[in-house]
Amino acid sequence: MFGEVHLEFTMSKARQLEGKCCSLVGMKVLQKATRGRTAGIFSLIDTLWPPAVTLKTPGRDQPCEEIKTHLPPPVLCYIFTAQPCLGQIDIIDGDPISNLYQPPVTRCLRDILQMNDLGTRCSFYARVIYQRPQLKSLLLLEQREIWLLVTDVTLQTKEESDTRLPKTLLVYVTPLCVLDSEVLEALAGTAPHSIFFKDALRDQGRIVCAERTVLLLQEPLLSVGSGVSSCELPGPVTLDSLDSATPVNSICSVQGTVVGVDESTAFSWPVCDRCGNGRLEQRLEDRGAFSCGDCSRVVTSPVLKRHLQVFLDCRSRPQCRVKVKLLQRSISSLLRFAASEDGSYEVKSVLGKEVGLLNCFVQSLTTHPTSCIGLEEIELLSAGGASAEHQQWPQGL
Ligand SMILES: [Zn+2]
């Protein structure tokens, strides 16, 4: 019989209990869960089925033959909760790891993508190369949905002929997935990180971290499988090129010729040349000079930042309107010879210019009435940390 116990615990305490025989005191049944109504917990139980040791019928010493050969997966389990002030769980001393314990089976991303068992659980180790939203606040991260783009060595070094496999994979972390402070801190930072995803759910073309999925910054001490060192990437991360199969919420690389500028959304603003603060005050009494509240000084030569979206003609998507929201770096290089001293530029001077390869996040895809792709140029998490550019305006999906 399987059961789930709900307790008020820190994640580190819960991890100490993993694989151990424990005694439970002061529990009450919260719910009788059936496979039909509570699929989530049964997808987890299925990873532990059949049991690691042969089942015995109570009262008999010999394993029951019938149970050994026909093991229908359980259809019923109990969910327990601790009674206030009474509930307690303690590790029983003695055997360090229970022989009932089944360590997670680690798989590489290629194997996970090639399996067709949707709705089943999987465990893997992967490098996070991009994340949305990129929030600096742990509190905000805790309450929201997070999209992680991950990869591993098996996707990065896939055969050229194997076009069905993507080079990166989307992992959707729902608010139901409990993240410990260590993982939250890593996600709030800008350095790349490798995460062990334990018992994530396989979904159509993506992975979902929901209830009962555990994210760890390290490989667990006990695990079996092939993906152990798959995060050691052979070189810089490469992305799939934009093509007709590129899905929304994925990342891709794009190259093309500028055929238009979205003038309705183009704007520029001055930032402090010393600290990068974009909220400068303009002082009328000082003949319109800018001052920076962060540096407490007059900014005599502010740097001009821009918001610019361009339309590209892409050879990989000939019949499609491809719109890209560019990063500052790309905007500067595009306008290097086009902008005049006051910051203005002629739209026609940027037309026909080649851009790319740009790493982009696919924000939107429409096929009706015309085929359009909305891309946002992104900076992948890299060893040097993401650029300060991301902090210029809040990003959401
Ligand atoms: Zn400043």
Helix tally? 9
CATH superfamily of the largest domain: Nucleic acid-binding proteins
Number of DSSP E strands = 23
Mean pLDDT: 83
| Straight-line distance between termini | 43 Å
Strand content: 25-35%
Helix-residue proportion? 10-25%
The outline comes out as elongated
Radius of gyration: 27 Å
Uncertain regions: pLDDT < 50 for 5+ in a row? 385-397
As for the number of domains, it is 3
Output the CATH topology of the largest domain.
OB fold (Dihydrolipoamide Acetyltransferase, E2P)
Major pleated sheet = 5 strands, mixed, barrel
CATH-scheme architecture of the largest domain: Beta Barrel
Class by SSE composition:
alpha+beta
- Ligand list: zinc ion
| Order of strands, widest sheet | 7-8-9-11-10
Concise summary:
By secondary structure, the chain is an alpha+beta fold. Helix content is 14%, strand content 34%.
What does this structure look like?
The strands form seven sheets. Strands 7-8-9-11-10 form a five-stranded mixed β-barrel. It has a five-stranded mixed β-barrel with strand order 14-20-21-23-22. Strands 1-4-3 form a three-stranded mixed sheet. It has helices at residues 11-17, 39-47, 65-69, 109-114, 138-143, 153-156, 181-188, 328-335, 347-350, and strands spanning 2-6, 22-25, 27-34, 76-82, 88-91, 105-106, 121-132, 146-151, 169-173, 193-203, 206-209, 214-216, 224-225, 251-261, 267-271, 281-283, 289-292, 297-299, 303-307, 309-313, 321-325, 354-366, 372-377. It has three domains: 1-52 and 72-102, no CATH class; 109-218, OB fold (Dihydrolipoamide Acetyltransferase, E2P) (Beta Barrel); 250-270 and 305-377, OB fold (Dihydrolipoamide Acetyltransferase, E2P) (Beta Barrel). Helix content is 14%, strand content 34%. The chain has nine helices and 23 strands. The chain is of the alpha+beta class. It starts with a strand and ends in a 20-residue tail after the last strand. The protein binds zinc ion. Zinc ion binds next to loops.
